[in-house]
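User: I'm new to structure prediction. If I give you an amino acid sequence, what do you actually give back? Let's try with this one:
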Amino acid sequence: MTSESLVEKEWYKNLLGIVDDEILHLKNVNNEYLWDTLNKQSLNYIYKNCLQSPWLNQLSLAVLCATDHKLSPGSINTMMSTLNKRLMDIFEAFNLVKIEDLNYTHFHQYLSGEIYEDHTDRQRQALISYYKSFLFNVSKWLKNRIDINRQNYFSKFLFPEFPFDNRDYKARDLAVSSAQKKRKEMSSAVTPLLPNIRAQCHFRWNQIKRLREITNIHAMYNDSTLITRRELL
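Assistant: Good question. You get back a string of structure tokens that encode the predicted 3D arrangement of the chain. For your 233 residues, that looks like this:
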């Protein structure tokens, strides 16, 4: 039964009914609620950016495990925010709804640069590193800290496991970098021509403006001539 002290906790009030109940009640070896040990910045980030996310339970469990492993708050915040942003990108690109909809193809297309071409190699590599790190640490934590009879329940909150690592995408990273370099070179080739292009545009605009003025003058002349003829009649 939920104790009175737990009910009074701010994080419990904010997350009750949103985060899985078993994840809310997780404790460390000192019998402290893991949510009590989570740094304030991470907690606020979850409140602000993750409560509506399909991966809320997965991310919450990963962050709590990282906290219990004594990972620094700065590292946790970086990994959490990066992973959350990239998942948002992938879900938006493929119109995904549930975490179960996510598969290797979606990751592959992102990591190989087929979507979000403006993202850097570092952003793509960070996704692989942080995703695999969270997955590995949570899996290890469950085996070491959770009773074997409950491990199956929590395993459904693991991020899906995909067969990739940084080495798989080195060649693709080079291809993406090459494409970006080529686009930059093309832009650089156009840059010296910009003054002449602007001058030509300005000249043509003045011609169009002058033509309109002449057309308006002729129209006014024709109108005045027509009025004069009517008056004579």
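You can read the tokens as a compact description of the fold. Here is one thing that stands out. The mean pLDDT is 85.
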